[in-house]
Give the backbone structure.
Amino acid sequence: KQEVTQIPAALSVPEGENLVLNCSFTDSAIYNLQWFRQDPGKGLTSLLLIQSSQREQTSGRLNASLDKSSGRSTLYIAASQPGDSATYLCAVRTGNNRKLIWGLGTSLAVNP
Amino acid sequence: GAGVSQSPSNKVTEKGKDVELRCDPISGHTALYWYRQSLGQGLEFLIYFQGNSAPDKSGLPSDRFSAERTGGSVSTLTIQRTQQEDSAVYLCASSLEWTGGRGYTFGSGTRLTVV
């Protein structure tokens, strides 16, 4: 059974810092992995999608890496801003199964 | 539409009543998913639609929960005889059969409170 864990559960940093959020999964036979952002009272925004054959994806200040063999993904945020404050969720899709398995998220606060 | 639309955004209901939650996916998206997010817990898969059929409804927690999709578009999640443990945010997402791109687009959710 696939399980997804995110560490840390919460993170508070001063503006401008580079930071790393971690996601681990127990079954390496994944189809893809996605990072999402969730703002209070709002839906989920897809940030980056990494296919199983890829090692990383980049979008602006965000970079996500994937190491299938070790069951890990990291989301790197460069030069953090207060507007980055949100909960970041990692989700994996396994094989032909359409559903996503989710971590509990990392709550990020970037302080001005 | 431009995005996934869910209604209502908030619903407070009395225990034992039935509720209907609506999801209007992005036009042309053939796949539609319902998830539930309870306080302090991760997102929980409920059901997946491909067109109007539901190949995977394994996540529906009990027979009080049902969902349908018509015209390959709008979906309705119905909860009968609501219980307090049904209180959660219900999220809908849609995707192309295979995007190879951003994957899934989520709506803003319906926050259900059973009192």
Q: What stands out?
A: Chain B is about 0% helix and 50% strand. The mean pLDDT of chain B is 91.
